[in-house]
Amino acid sequence: MEAAPVVTLINKRRSEIVVRWKEYMEERKDSSSIIDGRTIETTNDNFVDLIFDYLADNQSQDRLNNLMGRILALGWPLSYLTNGVHIFRRVVSTLIIESEMEKAVILDYFKAMEDLLDPIFNNLIEDATSTWENTVSIQKRALMELSAPLIPVMEYLAVMPLIGTIDTERAKLIMENLLEGVIAYRTEVVLIDITGVPVVDTMVAHHIIQAAEAVRLVGSECVLVGIRPEIAQTIVNLGIELGEFPTKSTLKKGIEYALELTNRAIVYKDKPSGLRL
Amino acid sequence: MNIAPNRVEIHNEWDIVRARQSGRERAKELGFGHVDQARIATAISELARNIYLYAKHGEIIISVIDGEKRGISIIAEDNGPGIRDLRKAMEDGYTTSGGLGAGLPGVKRLMDDFDIVSEEGQGTKITAKKYLR
Ligand SMILES: Nc1ncnc2c1ncn2[C@@H]1O[C@H](COP(=O)(O)OP(=O)(O)OP(=O)(O)O)[C@@H](O)[C@H]1O
Ligand SMILES: [Mg+2]
């Protein structure tokens, strides 16, 4: 493919474009003030070089992808990058206008320039967005893994501390982790600690009851602990029957109860002095 | 104190959380105690979740009752399918979604005043109030 006249123009006036582009970028510097002057200078050099490399090379899709990879690898804020492309466009437009060619020719040049720069701009936004979406989904996954952990405390005994809001997705995870963990650790008693759950409404209660029933089906028992007084009140008001599902106010009482269920107890080796038992 | 009603549109599960947080804050400002704050937040959670589940979207309006008796008013309004048999819906254990069927009768017990208007195919409007003692 023969290079479009606008590409020839851009390449011929390269040094001039770079100077003007940097001037504009300097003016906008405050918008990316997190970056110090020296780094900005090298980054600007890199950035504009990348654009020129791309233009010099017939602008294939491969090259474009390559360009994006390299630009995004610089790790600069998207606003800085889009701004850079905008300014590049502005500088080239000015050059075209200053060339005082015929109106029709100028319009052709403009169109060619748009065709050249639009893909860069669009790909920049697309790639940055998908990178972020990717990051967000990885973080979401990581949060999910943290959101319903089953902790084997000692033989036959595990605790699942729940902290924060429980939505449908998390409720599913509670069930999965409970069943998986109970089987994997051969747990006999699981304490579900809801001290950190802000609101226990019918939906949360229902999910916890279902999870407890499922645990019972695999031969273990669930104990609900950490029921704050106000939560106890609202559960009663809602008329929720916890049934045969044992509850204890604190984790400590829950552990004592669980030990009892598994024929164990806490025994002190020596009566510690100053500790009233 | 800010007296203007607070409207929270309900479209997804996180809107439910926003609505009850806003209700709890308002209840705290008004001087409701811990247990009542929890009751109010729970009632909002039930009403907002019903909107999300059965009507897809609607609105929770939280406002201050500043009359002879001071308190908080919660309005849950939607243009969803409505409820055919209100008496049944208010019974403990009645559910069309495999839930506990404890939401509506629960809200009635959690709050001091409860009023429900529903028209099949038109929507549902529930007003629940709690007064300071
Ligand atoms: N906003 C609404 N629009 C239409 N139908 C509703 C609405 N709210 C409640 N209903 C109907 O009333 C029934 C009872 O509601 P309620 O909240 O008491 O129980 P639930 O939502 O089924 O279960 P739970 O609230 O215990 O999880 C629902 O199953 C549903 O059929
Ligand atoms: Mg409900």
Automatic annotation (TrEMBL), chain A:
Question: Which keywords fit this entry according to its UniProt record?
Answer: Phosphoprotein
Against PROSITE patterns, the record matches this protein to: STAS (PS50801)
Pfam families on file? Rsbr_N, STAS
What GO MF terms are annotated? heme binding; oxygen binding
Q: Where is the STAS domain?
A: 147-258
Q: Which domain of life is it from?
A: Bacteria
This chain belongs to the protein called: Modulator protein RsbR
Lineage of the organism: Bacteria, Bacillati, Bacillota, Bacilli, Bacillales
TrEMBL record, chain B:
Indicate whether RNA-binding appears among the record's keywords.
Answer: no
The UniProt GO MF terms for this protein read:
kinase activity
Q: Which UniProt keywords apply?
A: Kinase, Transferase
* Domain named Histidine kinase/HSP90-like ATPase: residues: 35-133
| Matching Pfam families | HATPase_c
Q: Spell out the Gene3D superfamilies in the cross-references.
A: Histidine kinase-like ATPase, C-terminal domain
Name-wise, this protein is: Serine/threonine-protein kinase RsbT
Organism field: Pullulanibacillus pueri
